[in-house]
Amino acid sequence: VPADFHDFALQAHEELERELVDGEYFDIAAIEELGTVSAALVVERLARLPGTAEIALSMLVSARSSTSNCHGRLALVENGRPGRFVAQCNTLLVIEGDAVGIAHPAPADVTAVESLFAYPMGRLIGTPSVQWLSPEEAGNVRTWLRVACAAEIAGLMQAAIDSTVAHLSIRKQFGRPLGTFQALRHRMAECAVLAGGVRWLALKAAWTGDAGDAALAALHAQDSATRVIYDVHQMMGAMGMTLEMSLHLWTYRMKALLSELGGRRRAGEGRRRLLFPVGRHSCRHVPFPTLLSP
Amino acid sequence: MNFAWNSDQVAFRALVRDFLEANLPDNWENIAHGPGSEAQSIFSKQFCGALANAGLLVPHWPASWGGRDADPWTAFILAEEMWAAGEPRGGQYMNVNWIGPDADALRQRASSRRATSRRWRAARRCGARGFPSRKPVQTSPRCAPALTSTVRITCINGQKIWTSYAGLADTCFLLARTSPGKGGISIFLLPMDTAGITVRQIPSIIGEGDIHEVFFDDVTVPGRCDARRGRAGLGNRSHGTVSGACGHSAFCTGVKNVAPRGGSAQERRVGLVTGRGAGAVEQSARAHAACEVARLYSYNIIDQRCQGQPPGPEASAARVATVNAERLVNEFVVEHLPEALAGGDALLLAHHQRAIVAGIASGAAEIQLNLIATELLQLPREPR
């Protein structure tokens, strides 16, 4: 971790991005033998790093968008709010209510803003032309935004848990490691179960590409992150409040994702289409598990 | 990574559903008061016989035991569908899901022959295992366990609280201490009509016929009782795995019952849920997500089992995920469909009664949390 941790938190990791480009990692989802599940796995693993770059949207949303000009490094501007990588990207996904559009901003159209979120944040200040997508394509973009969100949160959550476990294993109080106290062990175990669940739902959604699966994954990711962020900071104690510890890198990145696409409420509404169809007896007429959904 | 079912699995699930369609009576929802209830137990006798005739009772058991050596996915699909239907096998699910396979693991061939012969009569067993009793079940001091893996015990004393389905059981799957130390637990398959066994049903909020206290007063072990010594570790880990599967199926019932769909009764439910606003939608979505998480955790365990891998700490995570799912579904029902628990919906009531005990039955979830902390997270152990 660089000594200048404050700048580090705010800047995109150019070397990481360059290596990913050179290694053709951004093309994983489009490669038949690898596909979107592999891309989601890569997003999840890279999110665990202390350094960051615009990875998730490029790997999953660009690759699955049928819009020809949805390419390059992407950023999301939702209802005029500041967003991650907005000042660095060359393509903006613009969301206004239910509408989704694509814009390619000029340098003067965007500006960096300072924030607690451990991503480089920016705001759209200009009025670049926006190509509004059809409702169908807008839905497709939303689906993959949610898959990306869930995959990224899964990795961030796991990194936060790993960091906290390391602390609990070596930090002693009352003569023994903190990690031996059951009150903390149980909470960490519950966090681990949540993190594993987020990962499973993200991977399944990446596999099916289904809007309902994606909504369910995003909902569980955002819901679980809320709980895990609190718990890991509590267990890290005052150390977790310092910028010398890296915990804030993952927890504040998760916080940046909590409000994406309307947060938990909208994700909850988005999963409706997963629900079960008609039956005389509820116990008999249910579909095969949604794993079979195309 | 492949989340798809293969064609055999799809066909098997369809077969099970067709069977349910053909064999559940129209008034099934009035019978399904829970696996241990008298009405459901009576029904389960004929239902399990029909299942056996269709080759659907124990397909995952060895062919020599009456099964067809089907893989763990088959057993899991069967369990999913049965629980989603309200578990018409009654307490018999426990026998086919874990008592039989555990007995198989312990190579109790003699008991398996009896199990096979009784199976056709839908025999039941209770499971006296898991929780320590106030007065642990022990073999009498005058009994001398053999040094071989097969135990020769003549007398058992003690009591076991929290014994599932003991009231109607024919055979008891009993864990008793036969010698000191970690390997000193033996498993007995003990006929419940053995003199000295007393069963007391414990009234509970989880339903009738579920939990009992069983007393063993100078029980002379009959010559036909089978016993196997050691393997105390059979307990939490394998139990967690199997219970994860069982519980997983239980939450299917829950999520399907809270999910909007058509049909007369279900339409009324939809109206109730949607009429209660966005809060209900979001809360049901949370419950649904938790169910999907538990489902995928469980599928991962089954996949590991198919590959011959021993149960790992992921099984404990699956169990905790299942408890979370059961809890969230229950909380949703209590808040948004309270009338279901007051005479409005027998199946939801039955699910509720199973789910409220999800964190305790099959072993306390806190034990699984300890296992996760130590084995999955690799946190330092607590001092002992």
Secondary-structure blueprint of this entry?
The complex is a heterodimer of chains A (294) and B (384).
Chain A: H1 5-10, H2 14-22, H3 35-46, H4 56-64, E1 74-78, E2 83-84, E3 91-96, E4 99-103, E5 110-113, E6 121-124, E7 130-132, H5 135-170, E8 172-173, E9 176-177, H6 182-208, H7 211-236, H8 247-258, H9 263-270
Parallel strand pairs in A: 1-3
Antiparallel strand pairs in A: 2-6, 3-4, 4-7, 5-6, 8-9
Chain B: H1 7-23, H2 28-31, H3 38-53, H4 72-84, H5 92-105, H6 109-119, E1 125-128, E2 138-139, E3 155-164, E4 171-177, E5 185-191, E6 197-201, E7 211-220, E8 226-229, H7 236-258, H8 264-274, H9 278-306, H10 313-336, H11 346-355, H12 365-376
Parallel strand pairs in B: 1-4
Antiparallel strand pairs in B: 2-3, 3-7, 4-5, 5-8, 6-7
List keywords for this structure.
heterodimer, A: 294 residues, alpha+beta, 4-stranded mixed sheet, 3-stranded antiparallel sheet, 9 helices, 11% strand, globular, disordered C terminus, B: 384 residues, 4-stranded antiparallel sheet, 12 helices, 13% strand
Provide an overview of this structure.
The complex is a heterodimer of chains A (294) and B (384). In chain A, the strands form three sheets. Chain A has a four-stranded mixed β-sheet, covered by helices on one side. Chain A has nine helices and nine strands. Residues 273-294 of chain A have low confidence and may be disordered. Chain A is globular. In chain A, a hairpin with a 7-residue loop joins strand 5 (110-113) and strand 6. Chain A has 294 residues and is of the alpha+beta class. Chain B is of the alpha+beta class and 384 residues long. Chain B has helices at 7-23, 28-31, 38-53, 72-84, 92-105, 109-119, 236-258, 264-274, 278-306, 313-336, 346-355, 365-376, and strands at residues 125-128, 138-139, 155-164, 171-177, 185-191, 197-201, 211-220, 226-229. Chain B has a four-stranded mixed β-sheet with strand order 1-4-5-8, with helices on one face. Chain B has a four-stranded antiparallel β-sheet with strand order 2-3-7-6, with no helix packed on it. In chain B, helix 7 packs antiparallel against helix 9 (278-306) and helix 9 (278-306) packs antiparallel against helix 10. The radius of gyration of chain B is 21 Å and the shape is globular. The interface between A and B is large, with 58 and 68 residues.
